[in-house]
Amino acid sequence: MFHPDSISFHPLSGIFILLVQFILLLVLAPLPLSLLTIFIIFEFLLVGGRRSMINLLWGIMPLIIFLTGTTLIFSGFTIALGVFLRIISGALSFSFFITFTNPSDLTRIFESLHIPPRWAIIPSLTLTFVPRVIKDAQETIETLALRGEIGGKWNILKWMPRVFAIIIASSLYRSEFLAQALYFRGFGLPSRTHYRKIAFKRVDLLRSSFWSLILVLTPQINSLSFS
User: Fold this and answer.
1) CA distances from 84 to 58, 71, 226 (A)
2) Is 151 left (phi over 0), alpha (psi -120 to 50) or beta?
3) How far apart are CA 117 and CA 148, in angstroms?
4) Cα–Cα distances in Å, from 55 out to 2, 26, 94, 158?
């Protein structure tokens, strides 16, 4: 989730790079995929996102183990390696985007492209509202675990309704503050002003150029992996 004091990239460059990375995930062979993963990890380390990267990988580790292990059993090592790298690269790509893209800037960019405000705000709400509700649910589960209320074969029937109740309550609670924030920002008015401009920075141009070059060289890179 984006933090106000973190580095932010231009939303359009972030969306472009995210699309390029997911195209590469679909077309690259396992060896070039490992290079793609290294590039994404290097970007995370370069901007100080090591903790976010580690937390993400730790959170999806059960999914990685299950899918990679199942593929290894039924399809062999090469395909399992491709699945492993695609899961990690895809998760890191999306995590990088939501961590270093300001949701408010994303909404403003969509509005500048003449997308109706009620549609332009959906990505911003997804990037801010949903992670906070999930965090509330995680804190509830951790609290129940510390109390010893999670455990046993059928105990899930006792604590899961509490988690759902917290999710609903959190959604309603945050919805009220969200509605107030949108009202005071003049959301839905025919015209709105903004206190700052969103401009491309040098780092946005460098990142976009680098990933564009990787995309152009993809056929050559794939051919080298089979030579």
Assistant:
1) 14, 9, 19
2) left
3) 46
4) 14, 25, 14, 28
Q: Give the pLDDT confidence of 166-186 residue by residue, as tens digits.
A: 777 777 777 776 666 666 666
Handedness of CA 124, 129, 130, 132 (dihedral sign): positive
3-state secondary structure 168-221: HHHHHHHHHHHHHHHHHCCCCCCCCCCCCCCCCCHHHHHHHHHHHHHHHCHHHH
Contact present, 13 and 207 (Cβ < 8 Å): yes
Measured in Å, how far apart are the chain's first and last C-alpha atoms? 41
pTM of the model: 0.73
Q: Pick from 208, 13, 4: which is nearest to 97 by CA? A: 13
130-163 confidence digits (pLDDT tens):
677 767 777 777 777 777 766 554 566 666 777 7
Tokens of residue 220, six digits: 């050559």
DSSP for 113-152, written as a single string: TT--HHHHHHHHHHHHHHHHHHHHHHHHHHHHHHTT-S-S
What's the CA gap between 58 and 95, in Å, rounded? 13
**Could you tell me the two tokens for 19?**
């699309």
Report CA 139 to chain centroid distance, whole Å.
20
| Length in residues, the chain | 227
Q: Which residue type is seen at 76?
A: G
